[in-house]
Design brief:
The protein is built from 9 helices and 8 strands. With 227 residues, it is α/β, with parallel strands linked by helices. The longest helix has 14 residues. InterPro entries: AB_hydrolase_1, AB_hydrolase_fold.
Length: 227
């Protein structure tokens, strides 16, 4: 199965470099995406541009696809399920939850000069970064790609309720499956409360398991691909 891999804020397709061979070894065709504005130098890119890039990758696949979104890009994976419910066989949401219709995509940090730069490690102290040493943190910060304002502040638009029939796997790295289930059942994630086939997987890592636990993450993703 083709598996689309969409990194979160400040990342390009290279974030999946160690997940790709692990998925290929398990018999899948991983397709890491570099999104407009997050790897091509286009600071004018918008959320619509990123959605269009994801849908183009879905449409280019020879059959059904599994869409994997990390962090903020969980919303992009969910937008793909909304726009292509007949082509998306499942969505894997790693370390994040989809924003609802009418909500901003990722308006989390200060926008300066038209972009939202990586804010440093202070907001991610604790479980998010527990498995990153100082060298890894320095390398991440040096490579972080500022997110265009048109992406970060873009408004999410969901239109097709058939998305709720797309199976979803919530991968829980810096929090537990029990915590995620409590948030969803408690109404904090309205989009996932309506999903018909919702599963959870714990993964012992920080917020960026593609960097620190790539083989383990690949196995979890492959499990979702098997249904």
């Amino acid at each position: 199965m083709d598996i689309l891999l969409i990194g979160g804020l400040w990342l390009d397709g290279s974030a999946w470099d160690h997940v790709v061979p692990a998925l290929a070894a398990l018999g899948h065709r991983p397709v890491p995406l570099t999104l407009p504005g997050q790897g091509d130098g286009d600071a004018s890119a918008t959320l619509d541009d990123q959605v269009a890039a994801v849908l183009a990758a879905v449409d280019a696949a020879p059959g059904e696809v599994l869409v994997v979104g990390h962090s903020a890009a969980c919303t992009l994976a969910w937008l793909a399920a909304d726009a292509r419910p007949d082509r998306v066989a499942g969505a894997v949401l790693v370390g994040g939850f989809p924003a609802g219709d009418g909500k901003p995509y990722a308006d989390f940090f200060e926008v300066r000069d038209g972009v939202m730069p990586f804010p440093g490690w202070e907001p991610f102290d604790g479980p998010d970064s527990v498995d990153l040493d100082d060298d890894a943190k320095r390398a991440f910060a040096a490579a972080a790609i500022p997110v265009p304002a048109g992406v970060a502040t873009g408004v999410v638009r969901l239109t097709d309720e058939r998305r709720f029939a797309v199976p979803v796997l919530v991968v829980c790295p810096e929090y537990t499956a029990d915590q995620a289930k409590g948030w969803i059942e408690g109404g904090d994630v309205p989009e996932l409360a309506g999903v018909e086939h919702l599963d959870y997987a714990d993964l012992d890592s920080g917020h960026w398991p593609m960097l620190t636990r790539p083989v383990e993450l690949a196995r979890v993703i492959a499990g979702a691909a098997r249904g």
